[in-house]
Amino acid sequence: MKNLKKWYINLSIQRKILYCTLGVALVVLLAASVSQYMSASSIVTEQTRKQSAGVVNELSVNLDHYFDMVRNSFEYIANNNTVQEELESDEPYKSDGTELYSYYSRSGQIRRLLLQGYTSIYMNDIQLYGYNGANHLLANNHEIHEKTAQISCELAEQAKGRCIYYNASEEGLMYMAKQIKDSLTMKPVGILRASIKLSYLKKMTITARDSLSAHIFLLDNDKNVLIESAENDATISDRSWIEKISGNTGEFLFTADGQGYDCVYQRSSDTGLTVVGMIPMSFLQKTARGLQKTTIMLILASLMLCIFLANILAKGIAGPIERTSKAMQQFAEGDFSVRLPEGRRDEIGAMNSVFNQTIEKIEQLIKQVVEMETVQYIEQTHDNDNFVVLSGNDSLILWTLLAGGAGAIAACANVYPYTMSQIYEQFVAGDVAKSRQYQDSIRSFRNCFKFGNPNTIVKYGVAELGYPVGKARAPFNKLSEEGLKALKEVIAENKSNGMK
Known about the structure:
Blueprint: H1 2-9, H2 13-78, H3 81-88, H4 106-117, E1 123-130, E2 135-139, H5 146-159, E3 164-168, E4 173-181, E5 188-197, H6 198-204, H7 206-212, E6 215-219, E7 225-229, E8 249-256, E9 259-267, E10 274-280, H8 281-284, H9 286-332, H10 347-381, E11 390-391, H11 397-402, E12 407-408, H12 417-428, H13 432-441, H14 443-447, H15 454-464, H16 481-496
Helix pairs in contact: 2-4, 2-9, 9-10, 12-13, 15-16
């Protein structure tokens, strides 16, 4: 911890601001992203669950429509006059369909009626028999499961006219039967029975199964499994979930074979059959996983943006401090012309203003000291016509003249002879303001003296104007690339301003 504290203290202000801003931003970003992801994931998963429940409900409705069609067919056959006559006749047709009969006979008409209600694709057989001994059978083959057929007929008698559905899954069939009554006396006269192929019902579940990647179950009225439909004929051996089904519709979570499922069921009030969709949680969360990837990408993008903005913030604060540090270094080296920008209205701008005022006051104080010394020299030598006081500092020529000096020894005159002479000429002409303008105009060139020996700067400046005067003697003839670049910029700027 101590080492960490020491490391932090030794960091630059820019890095401190950068790291602190990033830390705060990262915590806020992660908290907001996790919260947003959890909320969005919950909404997406719930929406997917509702859509899945809708698919299961739609399958249940389609099965109801199918059984409605079969029931309507049963009603049509049961109430047909020819069928009513056959079931009340003293000479009914008694055969399994192998005996010959006339096309226009009553038996022929009944066979055509049964054929209308029979489709070999989804029915195994359809049979009409009466309590008077009538027997009409239409089947793929003439072998029927007598015992199962008898049970379905007994259940139909108990239902007293309602259609019943009997599970014979071991035979691959489901039996549907209805007791037929006399249309006038309502006296029971026979039974209409059909066996439906479970393979056809299984095909009806394929669309729902594939769209949900789910296990689809069809349960009978006693919650026994009629069919199980799944990809690659996979099966769920654990059937304890059946005990959780109650009511006509609902859903619950269930885990089987290490896989989580959302179990959605819909029971038909007409047939008593229950459609159950066991939808893998991985399917429900599939869209949420896509959302998770999107969230991670947004976090990374936001983090990059935070780094970018934090870096700008850090530079915005540390940059002015660095400029102030450099300005103070220049001032320590004797450059009194250095100034900081004062355009800002914040604390940095106020600090720059105080810094500039301080430099100006110190410069004025030094000038006053120099002037006092110059005045002292002038006062001590004013009676001596053979002695004059000249300024040895190009920046103080005007102040020396104002104090009574005779002129100056100006190194800058090698580069800007006209400008330097005008400081004197304008003063002599009585235009002190104009003389001050010429005096101030050499400040930018004088600022370049910080990059090297004054003689070296002057010679490079003269060479830059096109006069190959050579370099100063070693070891005072070196000039850094930074200094040379700054000097060239100053010479070019002054040249564009007309200095000469």
